[in-house]
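Translate sequence into structure tokens.
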Amino acid sequence: MLVDPVNCWHIRRVRKPIKVLLLFAFVIVTGALIVSSSGPREPVSRGQTLSYWLNRRMELVLFSSPVGAEWDDSRIQIAMAERNVREVSTNALPCLLAWINYEPSSMKLRFQSWMRSLAGTWIGARVPRTLYTDQAAKRAALACVGFEVLGPKANAAIPRLKKLAQQTVRPRSADRAAWALSRIGPDGLSASFSLLSDSNCPSRPAIAMALAHLSQSLDFDKTNLAPAIPLLTQCATSSDPDLTNAAAYALRAISPGHGAIATVAPIYGAVQPGMTKRMKRIRSETSWIP
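Result follows.
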């Protein structure tokens, strides 16, 4: 079969503008998504924004060597980052509450999934990664770190966080709010226990996972979680597989030798392999938070 070289040249000329138009449309859509996820103006401390200091603290905790002179230097830098966050505690709360309430739209989730599938294609290779990275999701995770750093200084946010944790239409932000509550000192823990006892609270699996994670902190006294044991024991017999799995996991972490373990022991093997999509998301989104 003979090929007309003139027509081939024309096709090549047409394809190039199409690729340019596709790339232009992609940049426009991505820019709109980024703008739509912006929040209140960040407070500044020592010439750097709140998110800078939170991200700095997180990186130091996660990636510094835990021994030797390097760790001694890292601890000094971690303390400095935390001090700078606490200096703007009052102004930080509106930002942290706005960030933690982020819930990506279904269109944005589909768009991000589509972009991941294009990672090795012509378009994916020519678009900066920062344009399709979900910065709002990163700030939402940093908000959890922020509430932990502020501790009791964030007590004013507890009523709002409780309300967010009880919402059903925004599951991601509800789970993050439940996680943050457990980090705001004694008052936050008390709010967590209250939500854990509420059978209508949709974020109880996230609360149980947060308590399990908290019990593994080296500088945390597990006896503070004693009121959670009867609540978790009751949750472990729930018909909700997410709650059952999370409660059993938390009981093992908080009090592995407690008599309540015998009650939920038969459940462990049944629920762990069948972890739902939501529980996998909760664990993946929060397991790295220092």
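Note: The mean pLDDT is 79.
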